[in-house]
């Protein structure tokens, strides 16, 4: 069903990479399960209500007295990528996978026990995701109110500008009295990284997370918890790369420029990123939201070569209002609690995902039984 044939409705339109639209008609009855057939192959999706599967998916028409949610989790344990029948575009032929022999719990009751247990883990992960979205929105709104609209709290606990706080002219327009205009580098140190020699095996697969631009762009939240690659202390020592402190802000500087995240622990970065760390013992979260607010200006001032590139000059060119110390500290006291809760939720979700993924094959094979 091409896009121009779709009519807005309540039924999800499902492609190989998930829900891509909504339509006013359905073809598959919920609850349903699909897997990617073309492009992103083999990845299952569970849909609670009626839906429209596109031709890039395979979908279940009959569950044969099996629990749909169990089938979804069961399909996650199968490596269907190895049945790829495509060439340039990965493709999954259902005739290749129908003959696969599998072992599953015989009764739907046992299947439901397994799916209920796994769903409880996924529900908690989803709840954490929703909570983090709300917490980050609150923090973002507070930043805009305080530093964009100048409505931070004055000494009387009243909104500054609307309570008659004195404003002065600047090259950026009106700013509160006592504030100044400057570069973000007046507030933060700019930190760079390097890639140790990939040919030296003892530099790699160590205990230190090594952040590439890919890690930042694929990060699922404000904080980056894990990285695709890790390096050793010797890899750090034998290159100009340095170990960056916890809560350093990382900005992608090449290719897909302007993505931002915060380090959840000490990590090293490669040369496709810059690190920004407050010069003071406060202000890392203020710095994060300031960078987010300046991202569009950074992108517009990026240097276009083969790839878009942010340089030190880019950071120096971008001007921003720099508040008084006590205002930043007050903001940190409030928002810091929110951001620490965001990090705690992310770490809990990571642990729950790890538990779920380790238990999944054991539950499916019967090595572990669920008693509910």
Question: In terms of topology, how is this protein built?
Answer:
Layout: E1 11-15, E2 18-23, E3 32-36, E4 44-47, E5 52-53, E6 57-59, H1 68-76, H2 94-97, H3 108-148, E7 167-168, E8 175-176, E9 180-183, E10 188-192, E11 204-211, H4 213-217, E12 223-224, E13 229-231, H5 233-237, E14 249-252, E15 260-263, E16 268-269, E17 273-278, H6 284-300, E18 303-304, E19 308-309, H7 312-317, E20 319-322, H8 325-365
Parallel strand pairs: 1-5, 11-16, 12-15
Antiparallel strand pairs: 1-2, 3-4, 3-6, 7-8, 9-20, 10-17, 11-13, 14-15, 14-17, 18-19
Number of helices: 8
How many structural domains?
3
Radius of gyration: 25 Å
DSSP E strands, number: 20
CATH topology of the largest domain: Adenine-n6-DNA-methyltransferase TaqI, Chain A, domain 2
State the CATH architecture of the largest domain. Alpha-Beta Complex
The H-level CATH homologous superfamily of the largest domain, spelled out, is DNA methylase specificity domains
| End-to-end Cα distance | 43 Å
> In sequence order, what are the helices and strands, one letter per element?
EEEEEEHHHEEEEEHEEHEEEEHEEHEH
Per CATH, the class of the largest domain reads: Alpha Beta
Instruction: Write out the strand line-up for the largest beta sheet, numbering strands in chain order.
Output: 10-17-14-15-12
What is the strand content? 15-25%
Task: Let me know the average pLDDT.
Answer: 91
Low-pLDDT stretches are: none
Shape: globular
How many strands, what sense, and barrel or not for the largest sheet? 5 strands, mixed
Structural class category: alpha+beta
